[in-house]
Structure formats: structure tokens, C-alpha cells
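Example (one chain per record):
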Amino acid sequence: MHNRNVSPLMDNSREMLSEEAVNDIQLAMRNEPEVQQLARSIDEHDIIRILEYGKEPAVEISRLSDQIIAVMRTYNVKGFGQLHTQLGRVMDRFDKKDFEKNSGGLISKLFKKREKMLDRLYSKYQSIGIEMEQVYVKISEYQNEMAETATMLEQLYEQNIQYYLLLEKFVVAGEMKLNELKTNKLPKLEQNALNGNQIDSMELDYLRNAIELLEHRILDLGMAKIVALQTAPQIRLLQRGNAKLIGKINSTFITTIPIFKNGLIRAVAAKKQKLAAESMKELDRRTNELMVQKVRNMAGQSIEAACLSGCPEIKIETIQECFNIILKGMQEAKIIEEENKRLREEGEQRLKELQKNFHNSKQK
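Predicted structure:
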């Protein structure tokens, strides 16, 4: 039972063990040799052993809750907000008009300021490409960290279930021993004490004290077991939120950003070729009239080549679509991150309350 996979017994609506499943586990444990041996190992004459009964799994459950809270706090520090804001600033610099056809007077303007315009356009989108690459690297690193943490959370979840099952063993064994003491030994000592046997009276007082301590210890272990049960859905909620964000990062940013960036590079190159071709056309028109016929043949070939090279492999509409996808993904990722933050805060507060109640019950 310690290694048993309890996932099929989970209540899917709440990600917790259902009451029926818990009862099935308890009944199954009563027939296990390990649990029966554990019940026999409880010595009602050893008060110290009773007080420390089931101490190890109870302590581990408390430590596990601290680890989960630490993970939640780590996520608050490594939030997606800063990357989201940085990417938003980069995206705001993109202007579709930079790649659209210019208004009248283009040739004359290009002829005079072609180099300056090309340098400015190239510099702008080279800078955007570099900044986007930096954001892309950070987002990829963030995704990898989240994936590693998801693996760690899954390990914590499995440990939590295993500690719960171990606690259940101690509780079931304790209840079996308690039932034996109350059913077999206690009535005999009570009968002997009524007959005036002083030794039996002293033994009866000692046994009653042991029974009371064992009942209290079983109650403490039951509280630790509840902490384990209620910790499981908190882990699952955190995993679900992280999975949604990882999926959104992968589909919107990891996939779309490289396409968008490459589209920008090709669009700038195509724009540069187009402007150069149009400038060359203007220069060709001004060529000496004596060379007109020869130049026309050369110009025809140059214009044809310029037209072919001036058509970008990726249309501006494709770049615009990628731009819109990234913006939409940023909005959706922000919503998911805010929901994750709320779930983490609620989960952390809930675990703190459970730990506080657990410690308070131990003090009583």
C-alpha cells in the first residue's frame, strides 16, 4: 500500500481522496501484515513510545508543506510580468507603415535621402530584432524553469501521497491497538479492580492513561493526514496554472517570436532592395541620351531583377498576423499569470492555516 498508485481513487472534482476511497484504503490496510505488525509493536506500558508514535511521517508532512510554500514564494519572485512588460515595449516600436508603399514624390525623395532612410530603417529594426532576441532567450529560460518546477511539484505531490498512506497505516494500526485495549484488557482490569486488587487498580489507572494518550496521538496523526489530503489539491491547482502558462508561452512566444523576427529581417531586406531598385531606375532615366538604347536593355533586366527581388518571401500581412498573435498571447498570459498569483496566495494562506491548526492541536 505504501507504493500504491492512488490516482484512480481521487475525486476528480476536487482532486482529493473521496470518503469511499479512504474507507476502502483503511479496510485494505487492516489485513496487511505490515499494519498488523505495527499494531502489535505498540506497547501500552511505554508512554514515551506512545507519545512519539508516527512522529516521522507527521514531521515529514509538515516539512513538505514548507517546501510547497517555498515554491509558491519563488514563483512570486520569478513572475512573468517583467518579461511581459519588456516584450510589450519592443512590440510597440513596430510600425506597419514602415513597409507600406510611400506617397507621391517617392522617387525624388529617395534620390536625395535614400541612404539616410535606409540607414534609419535598418537601424530601427536591427535594434528591435536584438531586443526581441533577448526577450526570447529570457522567455525560453523562464519556460525551462517552470518545466523544472513542474517536475519538482509532481515529485512533491507523489511524496505527499506516500506520506499520507504511511500516516494512514499508523492511524489504522493505532485504532486496531486501541480497540484491542478497550475490548480485551480494559474490561478485565476493571473487573479485577472491583474485587479490591490494588495491583490491578494501579494497572487499570496506567492503562487508562495509555489509552488516553494513544487516542490523543491518533488524533494528532489524523490532523497531519488531513493536512496531507488538503495539500494535494493545492499542488494540482498550482500545476494546472503553470501548465496553462507554459502552453501559452510555447504556442504564442516560443513559436511566433522567431517567425516574427525573421519576417522583420526579410521585410527590411526587401524594402532595402526595392528602394535601391527605384533609385537605380531614377538614375537610369537621367542617363546620357547617346546611350539610351543600350541602357534601356540593361535597365529592363535590372528592373525585372529588382521586381523579383523586391517581392518579400513573407508578406507584410504575415508579419502583421504574427504581431497580433503575440499581442493577444501577451494579454492571455497576463490573465493566466494573475490567476496563478491568486491561486498561489490562496494556497499559501491555506497551507499556513493548516500548519497552524496542526501545531495548535499538538500543543493541546
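Caption: The chain has one domain: 7-363.
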